[in-house]
Amino acid sequence: MEMENMKYEEALGRLEKIVAEIENPQTAVGDIPAKVREAAALLAYCRRMLKESEESIGRILEEQ
Fold this sequence. Notes:
Elements: H1 8-23, H2 32-63
Helix pairs in contact: 1-2
């Protein structure tokens, strides 16, 4: 699934799964850099979604 089409909950769930995989001692060391890159991208995406939601809520409250 393309990240831009993910819901926040889906992205957060995938991020949590990646963190668990990185923490697992059975994860191959060679696989970790790609997992860290994906996790960083997911984290940035989640932060952006939260910021957009906060701004949207702020605009709604200003209209009241």
